[in-house]
Design goal:
Layout: E1 2-7, H1 10-19, E2 27-32, H2 35-38, E3 42-43, H3 51-61, E4 65-68, H4 71-75, H5 78-84, E5 89-90, H6 98-101, H7 103-112, E6 120-123, H8 126-134, E7 141-145, E8 154-157, H9 160-172, E9 183-187, E10 192-200, E11 205-207, E12 212-213, E13 216-218, E14 222-225, E15 230-233, H10 240-260, E16 267-276, E17 279-286, H11 294-297, H12 305-314, E18 328-335, E19 348-349, E20 360-363, E21 366-369, E22 372-375, E23 379-387, H13 390-401
The chain binds adenosine monophosphate and glycine.
Length: about 425
């Protein structure tokens, strides 16, 4: 088979790495990719918004299956576009991707199908939202911009004054542009967070290892929100019992709800859960693999990923039984100094040839210059390892991380420590 992966992050590098283990893979392409991906796939610089150019490329190269990494093209309808040309693709359609693309859609959907989540109200008028907050009883509250805001659209507020500021910034100052046309004002939920990944073809589903990611920039969950500074899987926080409960109370009702709405969903359903005293509740849905969770979930997957993606696209997932390794995997992200705010690019990365053989390095923001890799983004690399226990995997990752250098490198030193 010839396969195309769309995207340029650590997630896509992990997808390419795993797909390359498939016996049925003949050739692999990536648009646009990064320097690490270019070492194992043919990369091409086409804008992900340019569906026409992408479909021309697929036809020209006779690609059998396209796998979409990031949410933006899914929410913009790339799957509908490729399907209309009879091209096989892994990912949900535009309507289905609204589960991630619109908080209002997702909350209304959960309300309709009685899926446990935080209580909420939605507003399209600034004054009405402010008025509602004046009478709000709890001190903590979460304000969410409706649309995609690069993972920054949810603001956890410690008091009502902060919530008023958040609403003003989103709806009046329009810091997230049209993503702030509507807001959701949501009850604050207390608990541990865990991510549950399900791949579904709309009828059947398979469950990957549950993971935890670390969103804040600094140790101790301090600093700003980022795309994710590290991850590990499986997380003991989501015990088998809790996972079974989440499948029964969240995953199955979502799939049944989608079916009864006539919405076909083929791809990853990523359930961000809060494990509250009342059980698992949904924080958010994503319609694609997580980044950096994919960098730990895929090393634990023993089954053939290409077979799973193909079965998803052909709606034959019911024939597949997943095999997961009885190991633990950890990924720590090396970031550019300053990230998630302004940072410099073009720093020489050294030490990658000094790493132990069991270490997996997933490139995110890198570019090649001659024989060197240079930094080219906020999240630069993910360093990952899988081992019999978490402590071993962590030691391997941090021991090797110390051998990697570039000007301004920083990473969290406490990824997964609490789980030991
Ligand atoms: P989201 O963009 O919805 O995934 O939210 C980003 C992060 O904000 C989540 O991972 C949580 O840490 C936090 N968060 C979102 N909604 C809530 C909530 N209702 N209660 C507590 N924390 C939340
Ligand atoms: N790691 C969070 C996400 O992929 O959205």
């Amino acid at each position: 088979m010839k396969v195309l992966v769309l995207g340029s992050g650590g997630r896509e590098h992990a997808l390419v790495w795993k797909l390359k283990q498939s016996e049925s893979l003949r050739q692999i392409f990536c648009i646009p990719g990064n320097a690490g991906i270019a070492d194992s796939a043919q990369t091409y610089q086409i804008a992900l918004q340019d569906f026409k150019k992408i479909s021309d490329f697929i036809i020209e190269k006779q690609i059998n299956l396209t796998i979409v990494g990031p949410e933006q093209p899914l929410v913009e309808g790339i799957v509908d576009y490729l399907q209309s040309l009879k091209l096989a693709v892994f990912g949900p359609t535009k309507v289905a991707a609204q589960l991630e693309g619109s908080k209002v859609f997702a909350k209304n959907f959960m309300k309709k199908y009685r899926i446990p989540t935080a209580r909420f109200e939605k507003f399209s008028e600034y004054e009405k939202a402010l008025k509602f907050l004046k009478k709000y009883k709890d001190s903590r509250v979460v304000i969410k911009a409706d649309g995609l805001a690069a993972g920054k659209g949810s603001i956890v507020c410690q008091n009502i004054a902060a919530a008023q500021t958040a609403i003003k910034e989103i709806m009046y100052d329009r810091i997230f542009a049209e993503a702030g046309d509507q807001v959701v004002v949501e009850e604050f939920m207390e608990g541990e967070e865990a991510s549950l990944f399900v791949i579904t073809d709309g009828k059947d589903y398979v469950v990957l290892s549950p993971a935890q990611d670390f969103k804040r920039a600094l140790d101790g969950d301090l600093g700003k929100n980022t795309g994710g500074m590290g991850s590990y899987a499986p997380t003991p926080v989501l015990s088998q019992k809790l996972q079974d409960r989440a499948i029964k109370e969240v995953v199955e009702p979502v799939l049944a709800g989608l079916q009864s709405e006539g919405i076909e969903y083929r791809g990853v359903l990523y359930c961000g859960l809060m494990l509250t005293l009342d059980g698992p509740k949904v924080v958010e849905f994503n319609c694609r693999f997580g980044d950096p969770e994919t960098q730990v979930v895929l090393p634990l997957l023993q089954s053939d990923l290409l077979g799973i993606c193909q079965a998803t696209s052909q709606q034959t997932l019911g024939n597949i039984k997943l095999k997961l390794a009885a190991q633990r995997a950890v990924c720590v992200v090396a970031a550019s100094g300053g990230y998630p705010d302004a940072y410099e690019k073009g720093k020489v990365i050294s030490g990658l040839d000094q790493l132990d053989p069991e270490i997996m390095v997933f490139h995110a923001g890198t570019v090649r210059q001659g024989s060197q890799y240079l930094t080219n983004g906020g999240r630069v690399l993910g360093v990952a390892a899988a081992a019999g226990d978490l402590r071993q995997a962590l030691e391997a990752v941090y021991w090797n991380m110390r051998r990697i250098h570039f000007a301004g490198i920083y990473y969290r030193t406490d990824i997964a420590k609490r789980a030991i």
